[in-house]
Structure formats: C-alpha cells, structure tokens
Design brief:
Helix content is 47%, strand content 19%. The chain has 188 residues and is α/β, with parallel strands linked by helices. The C terminus is likely disordered.
Length: 188
C-alpha cells in the first residue's frame, strides 16, 4: 500500500548557499523533518564550477531522499542584479534536476511561502524559522536561514495543494496518488 505521506524537497536557491529541506507531509498537514542542509559553493570559483557544486549537492539529496515533488523559491526582482542572477541560475539547476529525475516541480514566491507558514506575507526570517520549528516539532530553530526557508518552501507546497501535479511524463507518483486519494476522502 502506498504511503499517505508526501515527500517534498524544498530548495531556497542561492549560488553561495543553497538551502535544501525534505519533509514528509500527511494529508492532515502534519509534517516530519527528513533532511535539512545547505549546499555551498566557493564564491571565488568560476560560475560553471559553482553551478556544478550546487547540482552535485541537490542531486545527492534527490538520490538519497527520493522526494515526490520539488518546490523552489521563485526568483523575484531585487536591486542587486548580481544576486538575482545567481539565484536564478541556482533555481534553473534545481528545476533541471527535477525534470531529469522525473518529478514535478513548482515555484512559490517568498510572500506565498511566508503567508502559508506564518499567516503573514511580510513575516521576517525569525518568524518563519520559529513557525517551521513549531510545525516540525524541532528543539531548535533551523539554521541557517537558507535551510529554514527550504523547509518552509516544502511545507508551503504541500499545504497549498501542490502535491498532485503530474511529472513531465504526465504520471503521478504512488505517493502523489495516495495523497490525492486521501484528500478526496477527507473532503467527503
């Protein structure tokens, strides 16, 4: 029998620090921490080397934890174009790896994530960390902020009903089918 939990990999893209967080979320919205970390690249290395380091780190998490879906923070306009470019490049790597692994991927804005996690779209980093720790029943706040943001992305994606999206192949994973079935039963 397929699990009723959905495994979501959240990615807070960054070129120097890329947050990764994996959670298992049940249809009742309860969640359990599976993995959290940060993939780092050397700021002095060439861009292609940095992107390869980010790809290796994300690929390792994909292969070890086998998520059903992937959620990435949507790149938004900032004053610092250099920072936006690095974020966009890391985001592109994550989305490409999702496609290569045949799992669906979605993007969520920082405001969507904050609103889903804290109820307030302008919440600060500390508020997001506090709510993520509370939801996942952690003894400490997840650190650094990139890791907490990755967990928040994963939770947001599951809670916003993003689970049952088909992969690039058009098929739902067994966990996605179980999730969709459990949600239909809960609505009856």
């Amino acid at each position: 029998m397929a699990s009723r939990r959905l495994r979501v990999l959240g990615i807070d893209p960054g070129l120097t620090r890329c947050g990764v967080g994996v959670v298992d979320v049940a249809p009742d919205r309860s969640a359990q921490l599976v993995h959290v970390g940060v993939v780092r690249s050397d700021a002095t290395a060439a861009i292609e080397t940095r992107l390869a380091a980010i790809a290796r780190g994300i690929r390792s998490v994909l292969e070890e934890h086998r998520p059903d879906v992937l959620a990435v923070e949507r790149v938004f306009a900032q004053q610092n174009r250099h920072s936006v470019m690095g974020t966009a490049q890391a985001s592109g790597v994550a989305l490409l790896l999702a496609a290569e692994h045949g799992i669906p991927a979605s993007t969520h804005t920082p405001t969507e994530v904050k609103a889903a996690i804290t109820g307030y779209g302008s919440a600060d980093k500390r508020q997001v960390q506090t709510m993520v720790a509370r939801v996942l029943r952690l003894d400490e706040l997840p650190k650094p902020a990139d890791a907490a943001d990755a967990l928040a992305l994963a939770l947001c994606h599951a809670w916003r009903g993003g689970a049952p999206q088909a992969s690039a192949t058009g098929a739902l994973t067994p966990a996605q089918r179980a999730w969709a079935d459990a949600e239909r039963l809960a609505r009856r």
